[in-house]
Amino acid sequence: MSWRKLAFIALASPALLVAGCASVTVDDVRWQDAQIDPDSEAVVVLGRHHSPEYETEDELLACIGDNLRQDIAGLSVIPAEQFTDQMYPWFEPRTAPLSLPKLLQTLDEPLVRERLEAQNVRYLVWVEGATETTRQRGSMACSIGIGLGGCFGFGMREEESTYEANIWDVAHAREVGRIGTEATGTSYIPAVVVPVPLIARVQSSACTGLAKQLADLFAPATEGD
């Protein structure tokens, strides 16, 4: 088993001289080798949607998939919606296997195996978590008059993104690792006539950190490995 912990600062808006920023911490625990053959094996990134408390955002899943495709040339990352449609009804929110014993049960269905093999699915990545606003401060007043108007004030918004990804090897019905990421940041909204939001893209930073570790986990073997 290997364990890693990474931390970095991500600028949210490179075009701005002063911008909100996000700090990101990534924890990586691995139990099994998870190298992938991009030419014949695919990955699916799914979010937990089985209750109101587990509503992982669709945009985060899409972001992770986009980053994985960029980091591993030729890798097929099947969109979550496409996958659940193809696997109906076994991966709907109420029926999806959320544990390894349940996955083994689901894999006993011949049609499930057939559909997974048809899509070349090797790994399922279950992502759980959310991005939340933890604190807001400041005030702003806006007015409109004849020939004059604008907003004056200053606001701050603190946000936190916390996600954990469980990586399952479908071929061997086992969990190969877990990756956790936590990103925090503060957005600033100063206004002198016109509000100029300086946004800390916390969710985007969490996505980048998570995707980089997944890409490292799935990195195809090279000669000499």
What does this protein structure show overall?
The chain is α/β, with parallel strands linked by helices and 225 residues long. The protein has one domain. It contains five helices and seven strands; from the N terminus they run βββαβαααβββα. A seven-stranded mixed beta sheet has the order 1-2-7-6-5-3-4. β6 and β7 form a beta hairpin. α1 (58-71) packs across α5 (202-218). The longest helix is centred in the last third of the chain and has 17 residues, at 202-218. Residues 7-19 have low confidence and may be disordered.
Which structural traits does this protein have?
24% helix; seven-stranded mixed sheet; single chain; 225 residues; alpha/beta
Task: Please write out the topology.
Blueprint (H helix, E strand, L loop, with lengths): L1 E10 L9 E10 L11 E6 L10 H14 L4 E3 L1 H7 L13 H8 L2 H9 L2 E25 L2 E22 L4 E22 L6 H17 L7
Parallel strand pairs: 3-4, 3-5
Antiparallel strand pairs: 1-2, 2-7, 5-6, 6-7
Helix pairs in contact: 1-5
Reported for the largest beta sheet, the result is: 7 strands, mixed
Helix content: 10-25%
Order of helices and strands: EEEHEHHHEEEH
Structural class: alpha/beta
Shape: elongated
Beta-strand residue fraction: 35-45%
Strands of the largest sheet, in order across it? 1-2-7-6-5-3-4
